[in-house]
Amino acid sequence: MSGNVIFTWTSSNYSSYDISLTRDTAADAWTRMRYAQYTVRDALLYDNIAIKVRTPGSATDNRMTYNVFKIKTKVGHTVNLSWTAAYFPSAGQYNAYHTYRENRTIFSVRSSGVSYGGYDQSTKYTYLTRPFASINIMFAIRDITLDDAGYYNGGTLAEAAWSGGGVILIVHNKPSKPKITGDFNVEANSYITLTCSSQSTSAPDYYSKLVTLSYTWLVNDTRISGETRETLRLYVTRNFKYNRYTSTAREKDLESDRSDPVQINPLYGPDILIITPQPTLNINDKLTVREGETIGPFVCTADCNPPCNITWRVKTSDGFSDARSEMGTLMQQVVQRDMRLFRCQANRGNKTSKQGFELDVQYLDDTLLYINGEMISNIELNENAQMRISCHVDGNPTPTIRLRRGQGYTELEQRQGTWLNYTIDMAQCTDTDTYRCRGTSTGFSNTDKVININVLCNTRFDKAGSFKSTYGSKSGTDTTIHVAVPIIAYPPPQSSDFKWDGPVPVPVTSTISSGDVSYKHVIESFIPVKDHTYFGNYTLSYKEQTVTRITINAEGEVASRSCFIAISLVSILLGLTWFMVAVFFVYNRRCRNVNQNSKHGEESTQLQTQNMTQHYDDVQGTVVDQLEAQNMTQHYDDVQGRVDEGNYTDLKEGRTVAEGDYTELGQCDPETPYEKLKE
């Protein structure tokens, strides 16, 4: 509950209302409101509050009045509360509610009697009205406490606790013990203002905030006449150092306890400050010291009367704070890195004299190493992901930071400062290594931090590795080919995930051996070559993905095949050259025939036709020869891997036979007619 009164009225279709408020006898001017509600704050300041409401264009006043019934008492007293109910229920019960920090039912009344939370009697409340069904509600509250303050009302429903009517119980209590504040150390022959701070402790709290206290000032236990305000202004002389000042606060006829006494101290000085022993400063006028070492004690003296308040202050990155000192002596201090300055300060009121010395605190922190913003010692990164290494070393003087990798400590970058950043935009397998950040500073031990970075690599063929793709071998029951395939992969793959596919299904035993780095491996396989059917192409796959291929030929076959391929390529090139020459010759001759005399046109035309036919035959034979050479080259590759001891090649007939199948590379007979060639 806030101590406010809220007036509400039935909303209509109007967008605004005109209201006039009267607090006790003071009436306000008419004001236009947009809502059908108005709140009067601090209602306890008034005895009654009336509101008049008009709709726009109407001269009719709708009036509502709220009487603020207040009963005041003191802690420990007994008080009677009463109000008139609108009606007493013929059936059911009438509840009395108390609302302060919570809303609660204190008793229920029926025509047959009263119930105090299920009991017939209460040590706190006594219902006084007779007969019970009377609308004049009256009851007593004994042994009043501050918790009994608040709003009392009644009705048949809980909403009655918030409706109009009822009584507000105000419980007075003496104000809190005052505290006198002010600048007690004052320059002689100047003014000083003392403040007596106290608060009302009466309840409810929305009443206590409205209370104005009065004050009494005393000097040496004697009341100062005419001083009833919260503040006391004095003209200070040197004799004031013998005076003791106290104060009390009063609410109504209740007076607070007396404040603790304060004493004004007229001051003069200070003058010269001396620090003993004198600190030894470097060329920058600072005292050089390492973090963790101790300095002091130092004694600070000043010429003051009366003696000044001499303290030591230390300045850090957060500002000034008190240093550990006694009677003007700075005690031995353990130096921290954020200490900047020690200062002796002699205070006499608003007169202050300061003397101090700065510190040059030297230190070197442990190295902090971050990978992609994380501080960890091991990490696995996806291939092509960004790799960002950050080294942080704090120190004074400014340290040197070096980033190195590998066992050989290959230096990647060096920087003087507190941060070193090194970025690889797309991490590769070759970036897998141990990385070391080191911070160095003269006079300090080096600080290192190491991180192991492993780049996750998909299994693939290592082009940079040693690899043989073609093998020549004999065949036999115990004959095997040792194949070593270099691969890149991290983490290392399982040998069972590799498979060899060749001309015939073969049981291949494969093992994996790791190289000098974690991502390089060698797949070692032993492929059997039991007979001629095992010769041919073999494919190594990893989880159905091709890694590489090899070829196993019969010994001596590799060289002959290479020579055949070279001869075929040369033949194709020569054939293309002669074809272009023939086309040019035909085109040139045709142009000359067009320019012949018209009288020989018919004869020339016939001759041209014969020449064209003849050249067509020449060209046709050339093209056929080239196509034959191409077909032989193409089919040679297909047949080469399938030739064995039971197969043969019939070069005289221009055909190749393998295991009963053959491909005939026919060449047109020179006598073949032109019409057949066109078909």
From TrEMBL:
Would the keyword Plastid turn up in this protein's UniProt record?
Answer: no
User: InterPro entries per the record?
Assistant: Cell_adhesion_signaling (IPR051275), Ig-like_dom (IPR007110), Ig-like_dom_sf (IPR036179), Ig-like_fold (IPR013783), Ig_sub (IPR003599)
TM ranges: none
Q: Give the protein name, as stated in the record.
A: Carcinoembryonic antigen-related cell adhesion molecule 5
State the membrane topology: Single-pass type I membrane protein
Give UniProt keywords alphabetically. Answer: Disulfide bond, Glycoprotein, Immunoglobulin domain, Membrane
Give one GO molecular function term: cell adhesion molecule binding
**Mind telling me which PROSITE patterns this protein's record contains?**
IG_LIKE
Single GO biological process annotation from the record: cell-cell adhesion
Annotated PANTHER family: IRREGULAR CHIASM C-ROUGHEST PROTEIN-RELATED (PTHR11640:SF31), NEPHRIN (PTHR11640)
Any one annotated GO CC term: cell-cell junction
Q: What is its main location?
A: membrane
Q: Where in the cell is it found?
A: Membrane
